[in-house]
Amino acid sequence: MKRLWKLEIRLDSAAEQPIYLQIADAIIEAIQQGRLQKDEILPSTRTLATMLAVNRNTIVKALSVLLDEEWLVSVERKGIYIAQTLPQAKPKTRISSLVVPQLTHSQHPAPLVFDNGYPDSKIVPVKELARAYRQIFNRNAKWQMMGYGNALGDPRFIQHIAHMLNHQRGMHVKEDCVCITRGGQMAIYLIAQCLLQQGDAILVENPGYQSAWKAFEHAGATLIPIPVDTEGICITTMKEQLEQHPNIKAVYLTPHHQFPTTVTLSLQRRLALIQLANHYGITVIEDDYDNEFHYTYRPVLPLCSYIELEHYVYIGTLSKVVAPALRVGFLVTSHQSLIDKITQLRTIIDIQGDRIMEQAVLQLIEDGLIRKHIKKATNLYKEKRDFTAQLIQRYLADQVTFTIPDGGLAFWITPHQPIDYTALISHLATKGVQLIDPNDYYLPPSTAEGLRLSFGTLTAEELEKGIRLLGESLTAHTR
What we know:
By secondary structure, the chain is an alpha/beta fold.
């Protein structure tokens, strides 16, 4: 067996791919090109670290990847060798950076769907996530991870969420009041079941988020709709309802980018809402579902960051950050008694979350890949937002009013004339365009006053086709 004494690897600290993955991929390339032979032994981790001028932990992580993927084998008391039998899949290089699709070509099959505002699954760092998941699963302590853990989530992941909320969103979070959930909807369900009961009432935005309404109703609560205007939820109406209904226990709202209208709750109304909530002793349930995608200087801090707010529950999710299929969310509350109830209920319905996935996501966060993904995704979505605004101006300007959103993945447009939305949606379906019925966002007897147009998952070609067809159809379906 030959002993490998020198390994030439060029590292780029400015690249998006972490250094340890650059090292791993360089070794794979050397194996594939025959510069490293089967059964050749690698230098020690200390020697490699010195040779490449990197931290020894970086070398350990790189070799861990290669051992997990079976490019290398470890022989006890002897060292690490190139594997005799190499993996079947032999990609020339491993790409860790995101591949951002151009906005000129469509790969989507019909129909063309304007969804509720989902992220583009084509730019998800799937390979990196899979690699991190595989690494976590194959660690020496993997059998310990097969047992039951904390019902509230992986402790290190909880620690990161608390740190992120305190340092990036101005909150004052205690780690023992954080619960990791399988997405935002699970968080809403847990809150509804543990905070509300038969005979209670809850204030909700109208228009608003129907899936949350269903969770509150399932808990036995009555929904009291509060209208939304250009400054967010209407405080005057909210106060009137609180005076009339002593059984109101909470208010559920999306103040950062109101769903579905995208408006941001104004500062004056934020302060007034906090005063009302404290005065009447209700809990503010803040759903901050798309905090990361903001196109101005920085997002508005959450309502729950105000130290004056006495009773709150804050909901966040990584499903919008990475992909809807990645069911990782969280909730934070100021109620110690509420988190105790949530722990008990969580243990009954789902004794723990996906610990391996939580640790895999945490690894991507610590490696900086999630931050880089958010940055690239935000740039892409800003480009799509601006392009969509141009299309609305071109095809709909004389028929609708709209404001360019400063964040999120959708527009809210208000037609100048009343629209028969049922007929409009049916007509568009015959053209291969699917549009969500805006009446689904309203509680009866209210009816739709606008349309939500998403842009996150659509290409430029699809956006132009869909908005052009919408413009042609609006005139024909004016009441």
